[in-house]
């Protein structure tokens, strides 16, 4: 609200402090209620309403649809893998851990076989290894650490046990509740930088509802990560990136937000070219589930 905010105002025509205050208030109202191109057509007031700390909820314009079919929610990759882990720990009355606090090789092999992982990635993990530890299976390690921080498993007596909270969400008909819980815990509480080499960007989490709304406005085609970042991040984020000397903002955003969204099958990703080569081009597109899982009601 600087620059031309008070252009065309004749201050000499104001006769009192009350008139000045009313002028300021009217200018602020006009600014807050005017759509802005750099906010994707949102008004500042609408953008601010999307960034409340207590989303989703009745007091925010973002909702999570809890009426998705049970069979669909069960098959979402992160939900399915979580259920496989939790059910295995429950059935075996705990999964034994190594002295370092990781899963033992027998259970790593079982999960590598049963869980919904990218087949090419599984092949790369198996290739050239006679034994496979948890640290070799990055998505399994992330999942195990996440389930522990989300209080769905508890590590004691040398085993990983399924908690009562988790057991309540493993009951028939509760997969959608489990998906919602996993989604909110991941994007509101979990350390998004875990197992990455990316710089910390807590601001990505703070503006996530705004970014999700901007993503909801994308068409169904493939989009490069730099194009996505340009459209879903606030102008202030780019200013911060310049101050921090972060020239890889799009790649960081892809690793911390876009890739995790694909775990929940809200986005689909692909990589063109070869990593480390100039024409390497990661891309994402929305899935039909995105708009059915996340809903917006902007006034």
Mean pLDDT: 90
* Category from helices, strands and their pairing: mainly alpha
List how many beta strands DSSP finds: 8
Domain tally: 2
Nearest-angstrom radius of gyration? 23 Å
The fraction of residues in strands falls at: 5-15%
Rounded to the nearest angstrom, the distance between the terminal CA atoms is 22 Å
Largest sheet: 3 strands, antiparallel
Shape: globular
Explain what the structure shows:
The protein has 299 residues and is mainly alpha-helical. It contains 15 helices and eight strands. It has helices at 17-32, 44-49, 70-75, 77-91, 105-114, 119-126, 138-149, 164-169, 175-188, 202-206, 208-216, 225-232, 235-244, 249-263, 288-293; strands at 62-64, 95-96, 153-156, 159-162, 223-224, 267-272, 281-286, 294-296. A hairpin with an 8-residue loop joins strand 6 and strand 7. The longest helix is centred in the N-terminal third of the chain and has 16 residues, at 17-32. The chain is globular, with a radius of gyration of 23 Å. The two termini are 22 Å apart.
């Amino acid at each position: 609200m600087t620059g031309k905010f008070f252009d065309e105002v004749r201050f000499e025509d104001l006769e009192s402090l009350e008139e000045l205050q009313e002028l300021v208030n009217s200018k602020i109202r006009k600014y807050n209620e005017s759509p802005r191109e750099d906010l994707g057509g949102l008004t500042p007031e609408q953008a601010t309403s999307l960034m409340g700390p207590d989303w989703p909820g009745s007091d925010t314009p973002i909702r999570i649809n809890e009426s998705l079919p049970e069979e669909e929610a069960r098959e979402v990759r992160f939900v399915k893998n979580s259920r496989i882990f939790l059910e295995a720990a429950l059935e075996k009355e705990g999964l034994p851990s190594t002295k370092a606090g990781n899963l033992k090789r027998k259970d790593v092999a079982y999960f590598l076989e049963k869980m919904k992982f990218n087949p090419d990635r599984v092949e790369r993990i198996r290739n050239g290894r006679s034994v496979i530890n948890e640290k070799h299976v990055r998505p399994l390690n992330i999942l195990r650490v996440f389930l522990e921080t989300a209080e769905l498993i508890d590590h004691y007596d040398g085993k990983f046990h399924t908690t009562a909270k988790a057991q309540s969400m493993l009951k028939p008909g509760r997969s959608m509740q489990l998906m919602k819980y996993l989604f909110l815990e991941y994007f509101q509480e979990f350390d998004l930088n875990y197992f990455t080499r990316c710089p910390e960007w807590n601001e990505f989490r703070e503006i996530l509802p705004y970014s999700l709304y901007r993503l909801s406005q994308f068409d169904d085609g493939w989009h490069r990560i730099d194009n996505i970042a340009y459209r879903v991040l606030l102008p202030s984020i780019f200013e911060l990136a310049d101050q921090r000397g972060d020239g890889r903002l799009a790649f960081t955003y892809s690793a911390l937000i876009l890739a995790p969204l694909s775990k929940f099958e809200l986005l689909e990703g692909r990589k063109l070219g070869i990593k480390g080569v100039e024409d390497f081009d990661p891309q994402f597109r929305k899935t039909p589930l995105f708009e059915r899982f996340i809903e917006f009601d902007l006034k």
